[in-house]
Amino acid sequence: MIEILKPDFEFADDRGELKQLVHEGYKQINVVRSKAGVFRGGHCHQFNREAFYIIEGSIELTVRKDGAEEKYFFQAGSMFAIDERVYHDFHFLTDTILV
């Protein structure tokens, strides 16, 4: 129901770092800030696959499809995609920023 992803490219030196998350395949980019304890989601997207990268914080992700349910815990630096028609819930364990 989900796919664990890695950034396309990473570079770091004494000036800082760069992470290229993706370079093709997505039509929309959002930044979400949520406070600890917040619940979001409870829906699915019929025609869209969504990818997420956690910049800061941690979440519990629950996904459901065709009677099956899976739970995942992600933290800063995690990247994953949720397939279309998969119901998903985000429980924000800490103040979190994700793209």
Note the gap between the termini.
19 Å
> Main β-sheet, in a few words?
5 strands, antiparallel
Q: Report low-confidence residues grouped into runs of 5 or more.
A: none
**Count of β-strands:** 11
Mean residue pLDDT: 93
> DSSP strand (E) fraction?
over 45%
Q: Counting H and I runs of at least 4 residues, what is the number of helices?
A: 0
| Order of strands, widest sheet | 1-9-6-11-4
Helical content class: under 10%
Question: Which structural class matches the secondary elements?
Answer: mainly beta
The radius of gyration is 14 Å
> What's the SSE pattern?
EEEEEEEEEEE
Can you describe what's shown?
The structure is a single chain. This protein is mainly β. 0% of the residues lie in helices and 58% in strands. It has no helices and eleven strands. The strands form three sheets. The chain has a five-stranded antiparallel beta sheet with strand order 1-9-6-11-4, with no helix packed on it. A hairpin with a 2-residue loop joins β2 (9-13) and β3.
